[in-house]
Amino acid sequence: MREQTAGQDRHDAAPAAASARASAPIVRALLRLLLPLLVAAVVAIAWQIYAALQGNFLIPTTSQILAAIPVLLSDPKVWNGLIESGGTMLAGFLLAAASGVPIGFLMGRAPHLDQALRPYLDVALVMPMVVVMPIVLIAIGITRPAEVLVVWLFAAPYIIATTRAGVRDIDPGFPEMAHAFGASEGQIWREVLVPGASPAIFTALVFGFGMALTGIIVTELSLIALGVGQLLLLYQGQFDSASVFGLVAIIAVGATVVMTVLRSFERRVVGSRGPAARSES
Amino acid sequence: MTAITSTAIATEPGARGTIEAQGISKYFARTANRADGQPFVALGKMDLKVAAHEFVSIVGPSGCGKTTFLRIVAGLTKPDDGVIRVGGDEVHGPGRDRAVVFQDAALLPWLDVIDNIAFGLKLAGVRRSERVERAASLAQLVGLGGFEKAFPRQLSGGMRQRAGIARALAVDPEILLMDEPFSSLDEITRRNMQDELLRIWSASRKTAIFVTHSVDEAIILSDRVIVMATGPGRVVDEITVDLPRPRSVSAESSGQFMAIRNRIWETLDSVRTGPS
Amino acid sequence: MPQTIRRGLPTVASILVGLVVWEIVGRLADADWLPPASDVFARVGLLWQDGLLQPAVGASLRTLLIGYAISVVLGLALGTWMGMSERAVWAFGPYVDAGLLTPVVIVVPIFLVILGISEATLIGIVVLFATFVIASTTRIAIESTDAALRQMAISLCATRRQILTQVTLRDAAPMIFSGLRLGMSRAVKGMIVGEVVVTIGGLGQLETAFATRFDATGSWAVTGVVLLIALIASLLVQAVDGLVNAWPR
How far apart are the CA of C136 and the nearest CA of chain B, in angstroms? Predict the structure, then answer.
C-alpha cells in the first residue's frame, strides 16, 4: 500500500482544490454559498448599469425585469401558456419514454437489431432536430400533435441511446450466469436486465426530460408558437422587453429547478451504479 | 529506540552532496478515520545525516514515514517541524541538486523514451539537440538502447523504471532520491534491476536515498540501512553494510548479508505493535 | 483494412436499405411531407446549380466557425480555471451546470433584444450552446489528471506555467477533446436553431423559407446538407484530436 502522502498535501499547482486546506470549514461553507450569489449580483448590477446607460426602451434594466416577474406570475394568461406548453412537453416526453426505453433495451440486447438501427440512432443524435421541424409542420400543420412529435424527436434518441448503453454495460457474466442456472429469456429480463439497467434508465429519463424541454422551447420560439412562444411573440410585438426578459427568467429558473431536483433524485437512485456511458444532453 | 548520532562514512558537514536532517516532524490531519481528531504522526523528530557519495536505504513497514521523509528531502512536502540541509543549504523546495525516481516511474505517456529522459533538461531550458544527445547516451547507459522511440505504454515495468532512472540522472543531480522504484516489478525483473542500479550507480556514485519495503533490497544496494517503525514514524536502527563493492545481487548468499538481514528482521519484529 | 471494411459493412448496408425503403415508401405514399429519396438528392443538386445553396452554407459555416472558436476559448479558459481552483468551481459551477442541464435556447429572445436580428445574435447562440459542455468537460479532464506526473515535474523544478502547459493540459488533452467534440455537435445545433429562430441568412433561413412554402422536398434537402455539415464538423474535430493525441494509449 502507498503511504498516505500523495493525496494529502499539495502545495503545487495542483488542480482540484489547491487552496482547500488553507481555509477553515466555516469560511469554506460561507464562500461556497456566497460566491455564486456574488457572481449573480455582479452580473445583475453590471446589467443594470449597462441598460441604464443605453437608455434604450427595448433594453430593460435589472430592476425593471425584477419588477415584471411578479406581474407576469399573477397573470392567468402566463399560467395558461406555461401549462399549455408544459402539457405538450410532458405528452411528448412520456411518449418518448414509453417508446425509447423498450427500443433502447432491444438494441442493447439484440446485436442484429442494434447493427441495423445503430446508424440511424447515431444520425438522430448528431442531427439538429430543428431542421426536421418544418417537415413535421408540413406533415401535421401548426397543431398540438406537431409539437408533441417535435418533443418526441428531441427526447427519444437520447433516451434510446442511454438505455442501450446501460443495458450493454451490464456485466455479460450476469445474464450468462442466469442462463447457466436455467433461467428463461423472460426470467433473465425480469431478474437481471431490468434491475441492472434501471439506474441507466433513470439517467436516460432525466436526460430525455432535459431534451424535451429544449424541444418544446425550440418549437415555441420558431415555427409552432402555441403556448409560451405565443406570449413571447405578444410581448415582443408590444415592445415590452421587460416582460420578455421576465418570462425567459421564469422559464429558465423553473427549468433549472426542475432539472436540479431530477438530477439530485437521479444521483440518489443511481448512486455509484451510474452508467459509464452518458450521452450528451 | 537507538539514538542516531554519527554516520558511517566520515564527511564534513555542508559539503556538496550531503544531506542533514534535524528533528523532522510531519503530521497529517486524518479526521476521516480518527474520531478523536488527533493528527497522525507520520514522522516524529527524525534525524539523519547522509555523506556525499553514500548510498543509504530506508526500510520499514507501510506508514512508517519513509516515503514522507524522502519527499521532504526532495522538497515535495514541507515538514511541520525541523530543518533539512542539502549541501549545507536549507531546503525550501525542489532543487536541481536533487532528482527523484518515482514508484511507478511517472513517465509522461505522450512522450517517447528520449523525450521523457530529456524532460528535466527541457524544463531547465536546455537546447533540443543538446538534450536529445544527452538523453540518448543515458538511454544507452540504463540499457534502453533501441527503445529510444518507444512510448511508455509500449514498455515493460522494468523498462519504464530504467527510463525513470535515466530521467533523474539526466539533470546530473548530486543526490538521487528513489521512492520504492522497484516495488511494482516482479521478483525476477526486480533482481535484474537491482543489479542494473548497482552498475549504473557505481559509474557516478551519486549520494542516494533509496526507500523500500524489501529488507534484502536495502542491504544489497546500500552502504547503510536505516530501519524505521510506525506510530509515530521513527528510526529504530541503522546498520552499516560493509559488503565489498562492486556488488551484485549474488552477494545475498554471503554470511555477512545473512547476519545483517537477521538483525534487521529482529528489529522489525521487536517493534511490531498492534495488528499490521 | 479488411477489418474496418467488415466492421463498417453492416452500417453501410443498413443505410442503403433505409434509403431504398425511403424511396419506395416515398413513391407509394405520395405524401406531401415524404418525397422519395431521389427527389431530395436531385433537389440538393438543383439548389447547388441555382447557386442558392452556396451562400447559405457559407453564411452558416461562418457563424459556426466564429461561434465555435469563441466557445473553445471561453470554455477552455473557464474549464481550466475551474479545474485548478475550487473557488472558481464554487463561483461558476452552478451556472455551468445549469447551462448544461437546462435548455439554453430559452435565452434566445433575450439575445434578439440585445443584439437584434444580426449575425452577432447567431454567433451568440452558438457560443451559448457550445461553451458549457467544453467548460464542464475541461474541468473534469483537469481534475482527473495524474497527480504523480505533476509531482514528478515539480521535483524537476518545473514552473507553474510549465506544469500547466507541459503536464496538466497535455494529460487532460484526450478528455478535453471529447468535450470539444460534444461542443462541436452542440455548436451545429446552436447554429441551425439560431438561423431558424432568427431567420436571417444561412441554411436555417432557407429551411424556413421552404417550410412556409410547404416545399417538403426543399426542407429535406436542407436537412440533408445540415446533417452532412454536422458529420463533417465532428469528423474534423476528431481528426485534430487524432493529430494532437497521437501517442499510443
Answer: 23
Three-class secondary structure of residue B177 per DSSP: strand
Cell triple for A124: 438522430
CA distance B89 to B16: 10
Query: Where do we find the cell 518507444?
Result: B150
Contact criterion met (CB below 8 Å) for A180 and A252 = no
C-alpha C213/C-alpha B105 separation (Å) is: 67
Count of other CB atoms within 10 angstroms of residue A111: 12
Neighbours of chain C (3+ CB pairs under 8 A): A, B
What are the φ/ψ torsions at residue A4 (nearest 5 degrees)?
-80, 50
Alpha-carbon distance C246 to nearest alpha carbon in chain A (angstroms):
24
ipTM above 0.90, yes or no: no
> Per the omega criterion (within 30 degrees of 0), is the bond before A145 cis?
no
Tally C-beta pairs within 8 A across A and B: 27
| C-alpha span between A3 and B212 (Å, rounded) | 12
Beta carbons of C139 and C89 less than 8 angstroms apart: yes
Q: Quick: pLDDT tens for B114-170.
A: 999 999 999 999 999 999 999 999 999 999 999 999 999 999 999 999 999 999 999
Window 54-73 of C, Cβ < 8 Å to A: none
In A, minimum Cα distance to B276 occurs at A1
The answer for residues whose C-beta is within 8 angstroms of residue C105's C-beta and 6 or more apart is A214, A217, A218, A221, C193, C197
Query: Within the 219-258 window of chain B, which residues sit less than 8 Å (CB to CB) from chain C?
Result: none
Mean pLDDT of chain B: 88
How much is the pTM?
Answer: 0.85
B17 backbone φψ class: left, alpha, beta (φ>0; ψ -120 to 50): left
Q: How far is CA B211 from CA A186, A281, B88, in A?
A: 58, 49, 22
Contact criterion met (CB below 8 Å) for C184 and C137: no
CB–CB of B100 and C152 under 8 A? yes
CB contact under 8 A, A259 and C101: yes
Q: Which residue of B has its CA nearest to C145?
A: B108
CB contact under 8 A, B42 and A1: no
Three-state DSSP at B81 gives strand
C-alpha angle A154-A156-A162 in degrees, rounded to nearest 5: 115
- Do B98 and B74 meet the contact criterion of CB atoms below 8 Å apart? yes
How buried is A77 (Cβ within 10 angstroms: 0-12 exposed, 13-18 middle, 19+ buried)? Answer: exposed
Sheet holding B55-59, edge to edge: B98-101, B175-179, B207-212, B55-59, B224-229, B234-240
- Residue in C with minimal Cα distance to B118: C156
Q: What number of other Cβ atoms are within 10 A of residue C78's Cβ?
A: 21
Give me the residue from A3, A11, A12 closest to B67, CB to CB.
Answer: A3
pLDDT at A108 over 80: yes
Please give the single-letter amino acid code of residue C120.
A
Rounded Cα distance between A220 and A281, Å, is 19
Q: ∠ CA(A75), CA(C101), CA(C195), 5° rounding?
A: 75
CA distance C181 to C173: 12
Cell numbers linked to A197 = 439497467
CA distance B84 to C242: 46
Question: Residue C249 and residue C177: Cα distance in Å, rounded?
Answer: 14
β B234-240/B224-229 pair status? antiparallel
- Residue of chain A with shortest Cα separation from C11: A119
Neighbouring C-alpha atoms within 13 Å toward the C-beta of B66: 30
- Contact between C163 and C150 (Cβ < 8 Å): yes
Interchain CB distance below 8 Å, A118 and C90: no
The band of B4, judged by pLDDT with boundaries at 50, 70 and 90, is very low
